Amino acid sequence: MGFLECFFFSQKFKSVLELNYP
Predict the structure, then answer these.
(1) One-letter-per-residue 3-state SS of 1-22
(2) N-term to C-term CA, the chain
(3) What is the pTM of this model?
(4) Cα separation of 10 and 4, whole Å?
(5) How far apart are CA 21 and CA 2, in angstroms?
(6) Whole-Å CA distances, 6 to 20, 22
(7) Could you tell me which of 3, 2, 5 has the C-alpha nearest to residue 13?
């Protein structure tokens, strides 16, 4: 997995956590 893929995955994962736990 490339660096950009890791970055976008982490951003998406963080946004999902923020939606589930505001």
Answers:
(1) CCHHHHHHHHHHHHHHHHHHCC
(2) 29
(3) 0.43
(4) 10
(5) 28
(6) 21, 23
(7) 5
**What contacts 1, CB < 8 A, 6 or more positions away?**
9
* Digit-coded pLDDT (tens) for 1-22: 688 998 999 999 999 888 877 6
Tokens linked to 5 = 């893929």
Q: Which two tokens stand for residue 11?
A: 């951003």
State the CB neighbour count (10 A cutoff) for residue 6.
Answer: 10
CA angle 16/21/22 to nearest 5° reads: 100
